[in-house]
Amino acid sequence: MSTASPSDPDKGRQDIQHTRAELGETVAALAAKTDVKTRLGGKATSAAGGLRQRLTTASQSAKTSATQMFRTVSQKASQRAATAKQKTRQAMATARGSASAGTQTTGKTESTEVTSARAVTAKVGTAVRAKPMPVLAAAGAAAALTIVAYRRRRTR
């Protein structure tokens, strides 16, 4: 703040107005610093934004992981199913061969085929019971994808 000479009253008024403007800015800055409610609101808003960002990132990561896991489980289940199918075909071929051989020697076609079919069914059932995890994993992955698809349709 400068002092004006008595001979220049306009200059003195301008200094006073300038000083008042600076004082008003200072008071406004101090009021903003002491307004705890507004400051906490701003912090809460920024914290909520950060939390939303983290949740979005975590959600995308979970979806990606679930998709990759589903593909892996599906591939393993398909491979095991193909192996079981191949073993079943081999067993059926063996059973048919045995049945036709038995028919030629004993004449008991139907009973030999029934026995062979039961043996093949038992082998397949035992194979699935021995390693149920791929079947269960594929069913769980399919259920998870169904739920995700259902929720997406509901939000649209």
UniProtKB/TrEMBL annotation:
Residues 8-22 have a biased composition (Basic and acidic residues). Residues 69-81, 100-115 have a biased composition (Polar residues). It holds the Pfam family DUF3618. InterPro entries: DUF3618. Keywords: Membrane, Transmembrane, Transmembrane helix. Residues 56-68 have a biased composition (Low complexity). The chain crosses the membrane at residues 133-150. Residues 1-22, 39-117 are annotated as: Disordered. This is DUF3618 domain-containing protein.
